[in-house]
Design brief:
By secondary structure, the protein is an alpha/beta fold. The chain is 40% helix and 18% strand. Strand 1 (8-12), helix 1 (16-27) and strand 2 form a beta-alpha-beta unit.
C-alpha cells in the first residue's frame, strides 16, 4: 500500500493523544473516523475539537475555510466496526494495558481488510507483543506521536521483525 492509497483513517481511542492524532489527520486532509469504547468521551471530543479549531482561527494559524475542511474530514463514530471498516490505516491509541490492546487487535483483525495498516501509538509497548493477534503482522508497526500531536511534527516509527518495509514506508 502506498500513501496515496490511504483515503480513510481510523483512530481508536479518544483520549488525549487519540483525539489530537485524529484532528491532526483531518487537518491534513484525510477522512478520519475516531471511536472510543466510552460513548460520552466522543461528546467531549466534539466540544474540544470545536474549541481548538476556533482558537486556530483566532490566532491566525488557520483560515475559516481550512477549519471547515478539517471539520468535514473529522468524524466521531460509536463503534470500531464503523470506524475501521474500509479504512486503509488504523492508529491505535487505546489504554496502555496489554490485555486491552490484545483484545483490541483481535477485534480489529476481524473487522479490517487484510491489507489495512495497523499502527500503535504506544511509546513503550512494541508491536511485536501483538503480532499473534492479527492474521497479517507484516502490516503492524508502532507509530508514536509526541504530545501535542497537532503542534509537534515528530512521529516515531518503530519497525518490528514482523513488519514489512512497505508498511514502514507508507507510515513514514
Amino acid at each position: 500500500m502506498k500513501l496515496a492509497d490511504i483515503k480513510k483513517v481510523c483512530v481508536a481511542g479518544a483520549g488525549q493523544m487519540g483525539r489530537q492524532i485524529a484532528l491532526n489527520t483531518a487537518i491534513h486532509g484525510y477522512d478520519v473516523y475516531l471511536t472510543d469504547t466510552i460513548a460520552a468521551v466522543l461528546d467531549k471530543v466534539k466540544v474540544w475539537a470545536d474549541e481548538y479549531l476556533a482558537g486556530r482561527i483566532a490566532k491566525g494559524r488557520m483560515t475559516e475555510e481550512q477549519v471547515a475542511a478539517a471539520k468535514q474530514h473529522f468524524h466521531l463514530v460509536p463503534t470500531l466496526a464503523e470506524a475501521a471498516g474500509g479504512a486503509q490505516l488504523v492508529i491505535e491509541a487505546v489504554l496502555e494495558d496489554k490485555q486491552v490492546k490484545e483484545n483490541f487487535y483481535r477485534e480489529l483483525n476481524s473487522i479490517a481488510a487484510k491489507d489495512t495498516i495497523f499502527a500503535s501509538n504506544s511509546s513503550y509497548m512494541v508491536s511485536s507483543i501483538f503480532k499473534d493477534c492479527v492474521d497479517n503482522p507484516a502490516r503492524l508497526a508502532n507509530m508514536h506521536y509526541f504530545n501535542p500531536a497537532p503542534a509537534l511534527k515528530l512521529v516515531e516509527v518503530v519497525m518490528g521483525g514482523h513488519t514489512a518495509e512497505e508498511t514502514v514506508e507508507t507510515i513514514i
